[in-house]
Amino acid sequence: MGWYKSLVLPIVRWIDAETAHGLAIWALKNNLVPRADDATDATPSLETDVFGRKFANPVGLAAGFDKNGEVPNAALSHGFGFVEIGSVTPEPQAGNPKPRLFRLYSDRAVINRMGFNNDGADVVAARLRKRARRGVLGANLGKNKYSEDAASDYAKGVEALGPYADYLVVNVSSPNTPGLRALQGRAPLEKLLRAVIKARDSFAKGVPVVLKVAPDLTDEDKADIAAVVLKVKLDGMIVSNTTIDRPVGLNSYDQDEKGGLSGPPLMAPSTKVLADFYRLTEGKIPLIGVGGIASGKDAYEKILNGASLVQLYSSLVYHGMDLVTEIKEDLVRRLRKDGFANVSDAVGAAFPEISGKGVPVDEARAAKEAHAAKKVQAAKAETASEPAQAANATGAAQTASETKPKQAPKTRKPAQAAKPRKPAATTKARKPATSKTDPAKE
Q1: Beta carbons within 10 angstroms of residue 2's beta carbon
Q2: Interacting residues of 372 by C-beta distance below 8 A, sequence separation 6+
Q3: Do 54 and 123 fall into the same domain?
């Protein structure tokens, strides 16, 4: 696996991004992408049930990688818990003019303006019909660029792909199809989702329907979407798609290209939107967290913020397929460290008032951390006391020097002064007076 990451991937990166993507699909088709021996080993702590479906693990391949349903089983063999194909439109379309896919090397990010390029629903359905059904497969649906009836387009997608999918995605959040994001408005969204649910009940009864939203939403947008989703009793949401925003700090040559930005710069904003929807829906529907995941830490953060499942894609460009196994192994460690028996126990733990969950703490670890904290606190207290002790000593010395002249008359008693033959009495009187009034010597 090391040679692939250190030799093959760097070479591939010198090739045009879209050509390299095509080579990756070809290599997966021909079983040329190496995979870890334990990539598909069962991990009980990662197994989870969502949408009434059983997932081997919560780490999925996001839509956009396998647009035409060519390699879903090959992707599953690399350890993904599920794969999502698409976006697929009713009619085939070429998408936007090239170049339309850009790597942002310094930011480990990607910008794309693909424009729903795909082979069309009928061709993709034919591929899925021949597929040996295994794992969990989602079908991401879109509308054709010049279609005037969005609801009809999505309904056609449901009819064609619904029978071969384990869940269906209504994608109204791509920034690369004119007018698509307008469908996220409250009234058009409710109309669209009701049409899709009706088609689902006719052609793919029981198949869950989820909505994929953008990260570039106002608070009002999010509240409206959450209200509609709950009203029509949708099965779930995917949060989120790529962003049209360009966060401060990007440092790559192609950072100003038009299109949707994905990768690490999207991690924080997409996770915030995920958390917002978890709160707005009160944890009542499953959420799939997407955007910027490049490590087990990232995946775990999504889960704690309300994601029942997570997806990635852009990070594969820079890390290869073995990243999937790395993320799963890290997730297992983090779950064990925080005392969760299963990944489902951690979902929404950042919001215990909603999920009823919290991050349980192992008693032995808690005791160890408490002991370490006490040592640190004691060290700080000792450091802080040193200046105070020095100040006390200085003050005591000053007090002593000021006090001595005042005490002197007490040792010179008139009666003793009249008896010069008894100097010992004078010496005894001075000695105790000095020892009592000079704390610096104590």
Answers
A1: 8
A2: none
A3: yes
Of residues 91, 88, 172, 78, the one with CA closest to residue 128? 88
Catalytic residues, by residue number, are 174
Please write the tens of the pLDDT for every residue from 131-181. 999 999 999 999 999 999 999 999 999 999 999 999 999 999 999 999 999
User: Could you tell me the maximum CA-CA distance found in the chain, to the nearest angstrom?
Assistant: 129
Tally of residues, the chain: 442
Q: What is the pLDDT of residues 284-340, one digit of tens each?
A: 999 999 999 999 999 999 999 999 999 999 999 999 999 999 999 999 999 999 999
Q: Where are the alpha helices (DSSP H) in 248-338?
A: 267-280, 296-304, 314-319, 323-337
**Nearest-angstrom CA–CA distance, 142 and 165:** 15
Q: CATH number of the domain that 151 lies in?
A: 3.20.20.70
284 Cβ partners below 8 Å, 6+ apart? 230
268 and 159 share one domain: yes
Kind of pairing between the strands at 287-290 and 236-239: parallel
Is 21:311 a contact under the CB 8 Å cutoff? no
> Is 128 in a helix, a strand, or coil?
helix
Domain boundary among 355, 383, 418: 355
* 194-245: pLDDT as tens digits: 999 999 999 999 999 999 999 999 999 999 999 999 999 999 999 999 999 9
The set of residues, in sequence order, having a beta carbon less than 8 Å from that of 117 and lying 6+ positions away, is 67, 93, 94, 95, 96
If you search the block for the tokens 């989120």, which residue do you land on?
Answer: 240
Note down the domain range covering 372: 363-441
d(CA 66, CA 339): 36
pTM here is: 0.82
pLDDT band at 23 (very low <50, low <70, confident <90, very high): very high
Q: Let me know how many helices (H) and strands (E) the chain has, helices first.
A: 17, 13
SS3 state of residue 156 = helix
